[in-house]
Protein backbone atom coordinates (compact mmCIF):
# COMPACT_ATOMS: atom_id res chain seq x y z
CA UNK A 1 0.00 0.00 0.00
CA UNK A 2 2.72 2.39 1.03
CA UNK A 3 4.77 1.70 -2.06
CA UNK A 4 1.77 2.30 -4.28
CA UNK A 5 1.20 5.69 -2.62
CA UNK A 6 4.83 6.57 -3.11
CA UNK A 7 4.54 5.71 -6.78
CA UNK A 8 1.49 7.93 -7.11
CA UNK A 9 3.37 10.76 -5.47
CA UNK A 10 6.38 10.30 -7.68
CA UNK A 11 4.25 10.26 -10.80
CA UNK A 12 2.41 13.36 -9.64
CA UNK A 13 5.67 15.13 -8.89
CA UNK A 14 7.06 14.16 -12.28
CA UNK A 15 3.98 15.55 -13.95
CA UNK A 16 4.00 18.77 -11.96
CA UNK A 17 7.69 19.60 -12.00
CA UNK A 18 7.96 20.67 -15.63
CA UNK A 19 4.87 22.84 -15.17
CA UNK A 20 6.22 24.73 -12.18
CA UNK A 21 8.57 27.11 -14.05
CA UNK A 22 5.76 27.86 -16.51
CA UNK A 23 3.42 28.74 -13.67
CA UNK A 24 5.98 31.04 -12.15
CA UNK A 25 6.62 32.70 -15.49
CA UNK A 26 2.91 33.34 -15.93
CA UNK A 27 2.78 34.83 -12.45
CA UNK A 28 5.62 37.17 -13.21
CA UNK A 29 4.09 38.44 -16.42
CA UNK A 30 0.56 39.11 -15.27
CA UNK A 31 -0.99 41.01 -12.46
CA UNK A 32 -3.49 38.39 -11.31
CA UNK A 33 -2.20 35.03 -10.11
CA UNK A 34 -3.32 32.03 -12.14
CA UNK A 35 -6.87 31.13 -11.28
CA UNK A 36 -7.21 27.66 -9.80
CA UNK A 37 -8.55 25.20 -12.33
CA UNK A 38 -11.86 24.46 -10.65
CA UNK A 39 -14.70 26.77 -11.64
CA UNK A 40 -16.16 28.96 -8.91
CA UNK A 41 -19.41 27.86 -7.26
CA UNK A 42 -22.51 29.55 -8.68
CA UNK A 43 -22.94 31.72 -5.59
CA UNK A 44 -19.31 32.78 -5.23
CA UNK A 45 -18.74 36.50 -4.80
CA UNK A 46 -15.41 35.96 -6.51
CA UNK A 47 -17.21 36.11 -9.86
CA UNK A 48 -17.55 39.87 -9.34
CA UNK A 49 -15.37 41.96 -11.60
CA UNK A 50 -15.03 44.85 -9.18
CA UNK A 51 -11.51 46.30 -8.90
CA UNK A 52 -9.96 47.41 -5.63
CA UNK A 53 -6.66 48.80 -4.36
CA UNK A 54 -5.02 47.74 -1.10
CA UNK A 55 -3.68 50.22 1.44
CA UNK A 56 -0.25 49.31 0.07
CA UNK A 57 -1.37 50.65 -3.29
CA UNK A 58 -1.59 47.28 -5.05
CA UNK A 59 -4.45 46.32 -7.38
CA UNK A 60 -6.73 43.74 -5.84
CA UNK A 61 -9.59 41.54 -7.02
CA UNK A 62 -11.85 39.67 -4.65
CA UNK A 63 -10.97 36.40 -6.40
CA UNK A 64 -7.50 36.71 -4.86
CA UNK A 65 -9.11 35.82 -1.54
CA UNK A 66 -10.01 32.35 -2.80
CA UNK A 67 -8.66 29.55 -0.67
CA UNK A 68 -9.19 30.87 2.87
CA UNK A 69 -12.40 31.80 4.68
CA UNK A 70 -12.97 35.55 4.94
CA UNK A 71 -14.53 37.89 7.45
CA UNK A 72 -15.70 40.87 5.40
CA UNK A 73 -17.08 44.21 6.52
CA UNK A 74 -17.64 47.58 4.88
CA UNK A 75 -16.73 50.70 6.81
CA UNK A 76 -15.30 54.20 6.49
CA UNK A 77 -12.31 55.54 8.35
CA UNK A 78 -13.87 58.68 9.84
CA UNK A 79 -16.81 56.72 11.27
CA UNK A 80 -17.03 57.31 15.00
CA UNK A 81 -19.97 55.16 16.02
CA UNK A 82 -20.57 51.84 14.33
CA UNK A 83 -17.30 51.07 12.58
CA UNK A 84 -15.01 50.98 15.65
CA UNK A 85 -17.58 48.67 17.23
CA UNK A 86 -17.54 46.47 14.16
CA UNK A 87 -13.75 46.23 14.22
CA UNK A 88 -13.89 45.28 17.89
CA UNK A 89 -16.51 42.67 17.11
CA UNK A 90 -14.39 41.12 14.37
CA UNK A 91 -11.51 40.82 16.87
CA UNK A 92 -13.89 39.20 19.37
CA UNK A 93 -15.20 36.76 16.73
CA UNK A 94 -11.59 35.76 16.10
CA UNK A 95 -10.95 35.30 19.83
CA UNK A 96 -13.89 32.92 20.05
CA UNK A 97 -12.18 30.52 17.65
CA UNK A 98 -10.01 27.69 18.98
CA UNK A 99 -6.46 29.10 19.29
CA UNK A 100 -5.11 26.97 16.46
CA UNK A 101 -7.65 28.30 13.96
CA UNK A 102 -7.42 32.05 14.61
CA UNK A 103 -5.07 32.75 11.74
CA UNK A 104 -6.95 30.59 9.23
CA UNK A 105 -9.38 33.32 8.17
CA UNK A 106 -8.58 36.62 6.50
CA UNK A 107 -10.21 39.86 7.55
CA UNK A 108 -11.16 42.22 4.74
CA UNK A 109 -12.42 45.77 5.28
CA UNK A 110 -13.74 47.76 2.30
CA UNK A 111 -14.37 51.48 2.60
CA UNK A 112 -17.54 53.30 1.49
CA UNK A 113 -15.67 56.58 1.48
CA UNK A 114 -14.08 56.38 -1.95
CA UNK A 115 -13.11 60.06 -1.91
CA UNK A 116 -11.38 60.42 1.43
CA UNK A 117 -10.26 56.87 2.24
CA UNK A 118 -7.50 56.70 -0.35
CA UNK A 119 -5.01 53.84 -0.02
CA UNK A 120 -2.72 56.25 1.88
CA UNK A 121 -5.56 57.22 4.23
CA UNK A 122 -6.30 53.53 4.80
CA UNK A 123 -2.66 52.94 5.64
CA UNK A 124 -2.86 55.71 8.24
CA UNK A 125 -6.04 54.12 9.52
CA UNK A 126 -4.31 50.76 9.87
CA UNK A 127 -1.49 52.35 11.85
CA UNK A 128 -3.68 54.50 14.08
CA UNK A 129 -5.90 51.53 14.95
CA UNK A 130 -2.97 49.11 15.17
CA UNK A 131 -4.82 46.70 12.89
CA UNK A 132 -3.14 43.33 12.34
CA UNK A 133 -0.76 43.21 9.38
CA UNK A 134 -2.73 40.48 7.58
CA UNK A 135 -6.00 42.45 7.51
CA UNK A 136 -6.80 43.54 3.96
CA UNK A 137 -7.98 47.16 3.70
CA UNK A 138 -9.50 47.99 0.34
CA UNK A 139 -10.33 51.13 -1.57
CA UNK A 140 -12.39 50.89 -4.79
CA UNK A 141 -14.10 53.01 -7.39
CA UNK A 142 -17.61 54.17 -6.53
CA UNK A 143 -18.79 51.61 -9.06
CA UNK A 144 -16.95 48.70 -7.48
CA UNK A 145 -17.99 49.64 -3.96
CA UNK A 146 -21.63 49.85 -5.01
CA UNK A 147 -21.43 46.46 -6.69
CA UNK A 148 -19.88 44.82 -3.64
CA UNK A 149 -22.44 46.46 -1.35
CA UNK A 150 -25.24 45.13 -3.53
CA UNK A 151 -23.73 41.63 -3.49
CA UNK A 152 -23.55 41.72 0.30
CA UNK A 153 -26.94 43.38 0.75
CA UNK A 154 -25.31 46.38 2.40
CA UNK A 155 -27.22 49.64 2.00
CA UNK A 156 -25.32 52.88 2.34
CA UNK A 157 -25.79 56.55 1.71
CA UNK A 158 -23.46 59.48 1.96
CA UNK A 159 -24.83 62.21 4.19
CA UNK A 160 -24.34 65.96 3.95
CA UNK A 161 -21.72 66.04 6.70
CA UNK A 162 -19.56 63.47 4.90
CA UNK A 163 -20.57 60.61 7.17
CA UNK A 164 -22.25 57.53 5.75
CA UNK A 165 -25.45 55.96 6.87
CA UNK A 166 -24.95 52.24 6.30
CA UNK A 167 -26.04 48.74 7.19
CA UNK A 168 -23.90 47.11 9.84
CA UNK A 169 -23.15 43.69 8.42
CA UNK A 170 -20.24 41.36 9.06
CA UNK A 171 -20.16 38.67 6.38
CA UNK A 172 -18.42 35.29 6.60
CA UNK A 173 -17.30 33.90 3.24
CA UNK A 174 -16.38 30.30 2.54
CA UNK A 175 -13.01 29.44 1.03
CA UNK A 176 -14.73 29.67 -2.36
CA UNK A 177 -16.29 33.09 -1.71
CA UNK A 178 -19.84 32.06 -0.88
CA UNK A 179 -21.71 33.92 1.84
CA UNK A 180 -22.13 31.41 4.65
CA UNK A 181 -23.21 33.78 7.42
CA UNK A 182 -24.09 37.42 7.99
CA UNK A 183 -24.22 39.08 11.34
CA UNK A 184 -26.46 42.16 11.27
CA UNK A 185 -26.52 44.98 13.78
CA UNK A 186 -24.15 45.94 16.54
CA UNK A 187 -25.21 43.71 19.41
CA UNK A 188 -25.12 39.96 19.85
CA UNK A 189 -24.55 37.35 17.21
CA UNK A 190 -20.82 36.98 17.85
CA UNK A 191 -20.98 33.34 18.91
CA UNK A 192 -23.03 32.45 15.82
CA UNK A 193 -20.60 34.31 13.58
CA UNK A 194 -17.65 32.53 15.21
CA UNK A 195 -19.37 29.15 14.80
CA UNK A 196 -20.01 29.89 11.10
CA UNK A 197 -16.40 30.94 10.64
CA UNK A 198 -15.12 27.85 12.42
CA UNK A 199 -17.18 25.60 10.21
CA UNK A 200 -15.98 27.51 7.10
CA UNK A 201 -12.41 26.90 8.27
CA UNK A 202 -13.25 23.22 8.73
CA UNK A 203 -14.24 22.84 5.09
CA UNK A 204 -11.15 22.05 3.07
CA UNK A 205 -10.33 24.10 0.03
CA UNK A 206 -11.92 22.84 -3.15
CA UNK A 207 -14.52 20.72 -1.35
CA UNK A 208 -18.20 21.64 -1.34
CA UNK B 1 -32.89 53.55 -39.54
CA UNK B 2 -34.18 54.54 -42.98
CA UNK B 3 -34.19 58.19 -41.98
CA UNK B 4 -30.61 57.84 -40.84
CA UNK B 5 -29.60 56.29 -44.13
CA UNK B 6 -31.29 59.13 -46.09
CA UNK B 7 -29.41 61.74 -44.18
CA UNK B 8 -26.09 60.19 -45.12
CA UNK B 9 -26.89 59.32 -48.74
CA UNK B 10 -24.73 62.06 -50.19
CA UNK B 11 -21.70 61.29 -48.06
CA UNK B 12 -18.79 59.40 -49.58
CA UNK B 13 -19.14 55.68 -49.68
CA UNK B 14 -16.21 55.15 -47.35
CA UNK B 15 -17.87 57.13 -44.60
CA UNK B 16 -21.04 55.13 -45.06
CA UNK B 17 -19.10 51.93 -44.76
CA UNK B 18 -17.42 53.15 -41.60
CA UNK B 19 -20.72 54.06 -40.00
CA UNK B 20 -22.17 50.72 -41.03
CA UNK B 21 -19.23 48.93 -39.46
CA UNK B 22 -19.63 50.90 -36.24
CA UNK B 23 -23.32 50.05 -36.07
CA UNK B 24 -22.70 46.41 -36.87
CA UNK B 25 -20.09 46.30 -34.09
CA UNK B 26 -23.03 46.60 -31.73
CA UNK B 27 -21.99 49.89 -30.15
CA UNK B 28 -24.38 52.69 -29.33
CA UNK B 29 -26.73 52.31 -32.27
CA UNK B 30 -29.00 55.34 -32.65
CA UNK B 31 -32.51 54.57 -31.51
CA UNK B 32 -34.95 56.11 -33.95
CA UNK B 33 -33.07 59.40 -34.11
CA UNK B 34 -33.75 60.28 -30.47
CA UNK B 35 -30.99 58.33 -28.75
CA UNK B 36 -30.40 60.45 -25.69
CA UNK B 37 -32.06 63.48 -24.17
CA UNK B 38 -30.03 66.17 -22.47
CA UNK B 39 -31.35 66.90 -19.02
CA UNK B 40 -30.34 70.41 -17.91
CA UNK B 41 -28.74 70.97 -14.51
CA UNK B 42 -31.27 71.29 -11.73
CA UNK B 43 -32.13 70.62 -8.14
CA UNK B 44 -33.58 67.40 -6.73
CA UNK B 45 -35.53 67.65 -3.51
CA UNK B 46 -35.71 64.21 -1.81
CA UNK B 47 -39.12 63.28 -0.45
CA UNK B 48 -37.47 61.56 2.45
CA UNK B 49 -34.10 62.35 3.95
CA UNK B 50 -32.02 62.07 7.07
CA UNK B 51 -31.89 65.13 9.29
CA UNK B 52 -28.22 65.42 8.41
CA UNK B 53 -28.99 65.45 4.68
CA UNK B 54 -29.33 68.64 2.66
CA UNK B 55 -32.86 69.63 1.65
CA UNK B 56 -31.84 69.71 -1.97
CA UNK B 57 -29.29 67.95 -4.15
CA UNK B 58 -27.69 69.85 -7.03
CA UNK B 59 -27.61 67.74 -10.17
CA UNK B 60 -25.26 68.56 -13.05
CA UNK B 61 -26.58 68.42 -16.60
CA UNK B 62 -26.38 64.90 -18.03
CA UNK B 63 -27.61 62.72 -20.85
CA UNK B 64 -30.36 60.18 -20.44
CA UNK B 65 -31.72 57.63 -22.92
CA UNK B 66 -34.85 59.10 -24.47
CA UNK B 67 -36.50 55.69 -24.15
CA UNK B 68 -36.26 52.75 -21.77
CA UNK B 69 -34.26 49.77 -23.05
CA UNK B 70 -36.48 47.46 -25.11
CA UNK B 71 -36.72 43.67 -25.28
CA UNK B 72 -35.07 43.74 -28.71
CA UNK B 73 -32.13 45.78 -27.43
CA UNK B 74 -31.68 43.57 -24.40
CA UNK B 75 -31.89 40.50 -26.63
CA UNK B 76 -28.99 41.84 -28.71
CA UNK B 77 -27.06 42.26 -25.46
CA UNK B 78 -27.61 38.69 -24.23
CA UNK B 79 -26.79 37.32 -27.68
CA UNK B 80 -23.48 39.20 -27.60
CA UNK B 81 -22.84 38.37 -23.91
CA UNK B 82 -23.84 34.74 -23.32
CA UNK B 83 -23.11 34.89 -19.60
CA UNK B 84 -26.19 37.12 -19.29
CA UNK B 85 -28.52 34.58 -20.93
CA UNK B 86 -31.30 33.29 -18.74
CA UNK B 87 -29.93 29.75 -18.61
CA UNK B 88 -26.37 30.83 -17.88
CA UNK B 89 -26.62 33.84 -15.62
CA UNK B 90 -25.03 33.38 -12.20
CA UNK B 91 -27.60 33.26 -9.37
CA UNK B 92 -25.36 35.83 -7.76
CA UNK B 93 -26.44 38.43 -10.32
CA UNK B 94 -30.02 37.48 -11.13
CA UNK B 95 -32.66 35.37 -9.43
CA UNK B 96 -35.41 33.23 -10.97
CA UNK B 97 -37.36 36.33 -12.05
CA UNK B 98 -34.69 37.12 -14.67
CA UNK B 99 -36.27 37.51 -18.15
CA UNK B 100 -38.97 35.06 -17.15
CA UNK B 101 -41.47 36.62 -19.58
CA UNK B 102 -39.23 35.69 -22.52
CA UNK B 103 -39.99 32.52 -24.46
CA UNK B 104 -36.39 31.29 -24.24
CA UNK B 105 -32.78 32.18 -23.80
CA UNK B 106 -32.65 34.20 -27.01
CA UNK B 107 -36.32 34.14 -27.95
CA UNK B 108 -38.71 36.91 -26.95
CA UNK B 109 -42.11 35.30 -27.49
CA UNK B 110 -45.63 36.70 -27.21
CA UNK B 111 -45.24 38.33 -23.77
CA UNK B 112 -42.18 40.33 -24.80
CA UNK B 113 -42.78 42.42 -27.94
CA UNK B 114 -39.44 43.66 -29.36
CA UNK B 115 -40.38 47.32 -28.96
CA UNK B 116 -41.76 47.04 -25.42
CA UNK B 117 -39.55 47.97 -22.44
CA UNK B 118 -37.55 45.04 -21.11
CA UNK B 119 -38.54 44.06 -17.57
CA UNK B 120 -37.59 41.26 -15.19
CA UNK B 121 -33.98 42.41 -15.26
CA UNK B 122 -31.83 42.57 -12.15
CA UNK B 123 -29.83 45.64 -11.17
CA UNK B 124 -26.63 43.73 -11.96
CA UNK B 125 -27.91 42.89 -15.46
CA UNK B 126 -29.05 46.47 -16.10
CA UNK B 127 -25.62 47.72 -15.04
CA UNK B 128 -23.85 45.17 -17.23
CA UNK B 129 -25.94 46.27 -20.22
CA UNK B 130 -25.13 49.92 -19.57
CA UNK B 131 -21.43 49.13 -19.20
CA UNK B 132 -21.43 47.20 -22.47
CA UNK B 133 -22.91 50.29 -24.14
CA UNK B 134 -20.23 52.50 -22.63
CA UNK B 135 -22.82 54.14 -20.40
CA UNK B 136 -24.11 53.80 -16.85
CA UNK B 137 -27.36 53.76 -14.93
CA UNK B 138 -28.68 57.17 -13.87
CA UNK B 139 -28.27 58.15 -10.24
CA UNK B 140 -31.44 58.44 -8.22
CA UNK B 141 -31.19 62.25 -8.09
CA UNK B 142 -30.62 62.41 -11.85
CA UNK B 143 -33.55 60.15 -12.63
CA UNK B 144 -35.86 62.04 -10.30
CA UNK B 145 -34.80 65.38 -11.78
CA UNK B 146 -35.53 64.15 -15.31
CA UNK B 147 -38.82 62.59 -14.24
CA UNK B 148 -39.99 65.75 -12.47
CA UNK B 149 -40.21 67.51 -15.85
CA UNK B 150 -43.65 67.87 -17.37
CA UNK B 151 -44.74 67.90 -20.99
CA UNK B 152 -44.29 71.65 -21.32
CA UNK B 153 -42.36 72.83 -18.26
CA UNK B 154 -39.50 71.50 -16.08
CA UNK B 155 -42.03 71.03 -13.26
CA UNK B 156 -44.71 68.49 -14.16
CA UNK B 157 -46.44 68.77 -10.80
CA UNK B 158 -47.87 72.09 -11.96
CA UNK B 159 -49.30 70.64 -15.20
CA UNK B 160 -52.83 69.23 -14.89
CA UNK B 161 -52.53 66.82 -17.84
CA UNK B 162 -49.14 65.55 -16.60
CA UNK B 163 -50.60 64.78 -13.19
CA UNK B 164 -53.70 63.21 -14.72
CA UNK B 165 -51.58 60.84 -16.84
CA UNK B 166 -49.20 60.05 -13.99
CA UNK B 167 -51.87 59.12 -11.47
CA UNK B 168 -53.99 57.28 -14.05
CA UNK B 169 -50.94 55.10 -14.74
CA UNK B 170 -50.24 54.51 -11.05
CA UNK B 171 -53.85 53.39 -10.62
CA UNK B 172 -53.70 50.99 -13.55
CA UNK B 173 -52.44 47.45 -13.03
CA UNK B 174 -49.39 46.48 -15.09
CA UNK B 175 -50.60 44.78 -18.28
CA UNK B 176 -49.31 41.29 -19.13
CA UNK B 177 -47.92 42.65 -22.38
CA UNK B 178 -46.36 46.08 -22.09
CA UNK B 179 -46.94 48.74 -24.78
CA UNK B 180 -44.23 49.93 -27.18
CA UNK B 181 -41.81 52.44 -25.69
CA UNK B 182 -42.66 54.88 -28.48
CA UNK B 183 -46.24 55.10 -27.20
CA UNK B 184 -45.09 57.33 -24.35
CA UNK B 185 -45.42 61.09 -24.68
CA UNK B 186 -42.09 62.96 -24.46
CA UNK B 187 -41.45 65.37 -21.63
CA UNK B 188 -40.03 68.85 -22.22
CA UNK B 189 -36.49 67.44 -22.40
CA UNK B 190 -37.45 64.80 -24.97
CA UNK B 191 -37.37 61.82 -22.57
CA UNK B 192 -40.29 59.43 -22.95
CA UNK B 193 -41.89 56.96 -20.61
CA UNK B 194 -40.27 58.03 -17.33
CA UNK B 195 -43.83 57.61 -16.14
CA UNK B 196 -46.50 55.52 -17.79
CA UNK B 197 -44.54 52.45 -18.92
CA UNK B 198 -42.48 50.79 -16.20
CA UNK B 199 -40.55 51.63 -13.03
CA UNK B 200 -36.84 52.00 -13.65
CA UNK B 201 -33.66 50.97 -11.88
CA UNK B 202 -31.30 53.69 -10.68
CA UNK B 203 -27.67 53.01 -9.86
CA UNK B 204 -27.99 53.98 -6.19
CA UNK B 205 -31.39 52.42 -5.52
CA UNK B 206 -30.04 50.97 -2.30
CA UNK B 207 -29.64 54.35 -0.63
CA UNK B 208 -33.24 54.13 0.57
CA UNK B 209 -32.54 53.22 4.19
CA UNK B 210 -35.72 51.38 4.97
CA UNK B 211 -35.45 48.08 6.79
CA UNK B 212 -38.62 46.46 5.58
CA UNK B 213 -42.29 47.21 5.62
CA UNK B 214 -43.29 50.66 6.81
CA UNK B 215 -44.96 49.55 10.01
CA UNK B 216 -41.81 47.81 11.13
CA UNK B 217 -39.86 50.96 10.40
CA UNK B 218 -41.95 53.00 12.81
CA UNK B 219 -39.74 51.49 15.49
CA UNK B 220 -36.64 51.26 13.32
CA UNK B 221 -33.83 49.24 14.77
CA UNK B 222 -31.10 51.80 15.29
CA UNK B 223 -28.41 49.15 15.33
CA UNK B 224 -29.14 47.86 11.85
CA UNK B 225 -28.37 51.13 10.16
CA UNK B 226 -25.77 53.58 11.38
CA UNK B 227 -27.53 56.93 11.05
CA UNK B 228 -30.60 55.41 9.43
CA UNK B 229 -32.83 56.27 12.35
CA UNK B 230 -32.57 59.94 11.44
CA UNK B 231 -34.28 59.40 8.10
CA UNK B 232 -37.68 61.05 8.02
CA UNK B 233 -40.14 62.20 5.41
CA UNK B 234 -39.96 65.83 4.35
CA UNK B 235 -42.62 66.43 1.71
CA UNK B 236 -45.74 64.29 1.89
CA UNK B 237 -47.17 65.97 -1.21
CA UNK B 238 -45.44 63.94 -3.89
CA UNK B 239 -47.29 60.65 -3.69
CA UNK B 240 -45.67 59.17 -6.80
CA UNK B 241 -42.19 59.90 -5.44
CA UNK B 242 -43.13 58.08 -2.23
CA UNK B 243 -44.22 55.08 -4.26
CA UNK B 244 -40.87 55.02 -6.05
CA UNK B 245 -39.06 55.35 -2.73
CA UNK B 246 -41.03 52.47 -1.28
CA UNK B 247 -40.38 50.34 -4.35
CA UNK B 248 -36.63 51.00 -4.36
CA UNK B 249 -36.27 50.23 -0.70
CA UNK B 250 -38.01 46.90 -1.21
CA UNK B 251 -35.80 45.79 -4.11
CA UNK B 252 -32.83 43.49 -4.03
CA UNK B 253 -30.13 43.84 -6.66
CA UNK B 254 -30.58 40.26 -7.92
CA UNK B 255 -34.28 40.65 -8.37
CA UNK B 256 -36.47 41.88 -11.19
CA UNK B 257 -40.18 42.50 -11.42
CA UNK B 258 -42.68 42.46 -14.29
CA UNK B 259 -42.97 46.25 -14.09
CA UNK B 260 -39.33 47.23 -13.56
CA UNK B 261 -37.07 48.18 -16.46
CA UNK B 262 -34.23 50.63 -16.95
CA UNK B 263 -32.55 53.11 -19.24
CA UNK B 264 -28.95 54.30 -19.47
CA UNK B 265 -27.37 57.64 -18.71
CA UNK B 266 -24.07 59.31 -19.51
CA UNK B 267 -22.15 62.34 -18.39
CA UNK B 268 -22.69 65.35 -20.63
CA UNK B 269 -19.05 65.51 -21.66
CA UNK B 270 -17.40 62.13 -21.22
CA UNK B 271 -14.24 62.49 -19.09
Structure description:
The complex is a heterodimer of chains A (208) and B (271). Chain A is of the alpha+beta class. Chain A folds into two domains: 1-29; 43-202, 3-Layer(aba) Sandwich (Glutaredoxin). Chain A has six helices and nine strands. A seven-stranded mixed β-sheet of chain A has the order 2-1-5-4-3-8-9. Chain A has a two-stranded antiparallel sheet with strand order 6-7. In chain A, β3 (70-75), α3 and β4 (106-111) form a beta-alpha-beta unit. In chain A, α3 crosses α6. Chain A is globular, with a radius of gyration of 19 Å. The model of chain A is unreliable at 10-31 (pLDDT under 50). Chain B has two domains: 1-30, no CATH class; 34-267, Alpha-Beta Complex (paralog of FGE (formylglycine-generating enzyme)). Chain B is α+β, with helices and mostly antiparallel strands and 271 residues long. Chain B has helices at 2-7, 13-24, 71-80, 123-132, 140-148, 160-171, 214-218, 239-250, and strands at residues 36-39, 42-44, 48-50, 57-59, 62-65, 199-200, 225-226, 231-233, 260-261, 265-267. Chain B has eight helices and ten strands. In chain B, 28% of the residues lie in helices and 11% in strands. Chains A and B meet through α5 and β7 of A and α4 and β7 of B. β7 of chain A pairs antiparallel with β7 of chain B.
Number of helices of chain B: 8
Q: What spatial order of strands do you see in the largest sheet of chain B?
A: 1-5-10
Average pLDDT confidence of chain B is 81
Distance between the termini of chain B: 29 Å
Which structural class do you get from the secondary structure elements of chain B? alpha+beta
Percent helix of chain B: 25-40%
Tell me the name of the CATH class of the largest domain in chain B. Answer: Alpha Beta
Domains of chain B (count): 2
Biggest sheet of chain B, open or closed, and with what strands and sense?
3 strands, antiparallel
Q: Looking at the chains present, what oligomeric state does this protein adopt?
A: heterodimer
CATH architecture of the largest domain in chain B: Alpha-Beta Complex
User: What top-tier CATH class of the largest domain in chain A fits best?
Assistant: Alpha Beta
Note the total helix count of chain A: 6
Instruction: Assign the CATH superfamily of the largest domain in chain A.
Output: Glutaredoxin
Instruction: Give the name of the CATH architecture of the largest domain in chain A.
Output: 3-Layer(aba) Sandwich
- Weakly predicted, low-confidence segments of chain B: 1-30, 210-235
